[in-house]
Amino acid sequence: MATRRQTLAGMAAASLTLGRPIVGSAQAKMAPITVVINQSPWFDSFRKTVELYEKESGNKVELDVNPFAGSLEKQRNSVRAKQGQYDLLIMNSGWFAEMYFGGFVEALSDIDPGFKLDKDIFTLGDTVFFDPVKKTMAPGGKLMSMPISPLIPVLYYRGDLYKEAGLAAPQTFAELEANAKKFHKPPKMYGIVQRGARGPATVSFDFYPYLYGMGGSIFKNQAAGDYTVTLNSEQGRAALDYYIRLAREAGHPKTAAMDQADLIQNMVTGKTAHVMMVIAAWSQMDDPQKSAVVDKVEFAPTPHGPNLPTAPGLGHWLGGVARNVPDDRKRATVEFLRWYQTKAAQMATAQAGGIPVSAAPYREPIAQERRFRWMKAIAESLPHAVSTMNFPEAGEVIPILELGLNQAIAGEIAPVASLNSMAEQIHAVMAKYNYNTGTLPKLN
Amino acid sequence: MKQAGALSRWATFGPALFVMLALGALPLANLVYTSFHTVTWSGGQATFSWAGLAHYRALPADPLLRAGFFNTIVFAVFAVGGQMLLGFTLALLCSRVRRGRVLYRALFILPILIPGIVIGAIWKLMLNFDFGLINQITDLAGIEARNWLGDKETALASVIAVDIWHWTPFCFLLLLAGLESLPQDPYEAAKIDGASWWQELRYITLPLMAPAIMVTFAFRLVIAFKVFDEIYLLTGGGPGTATEVLSFTLYQRFFTEDRAGYGSAMAIAIIFLCSLLLVAALSVRRRPETAA
Question: Which candidate from A200, A257, A406 shows the least CB-CB separation from B149?
Answer without folding.
Answer: A257
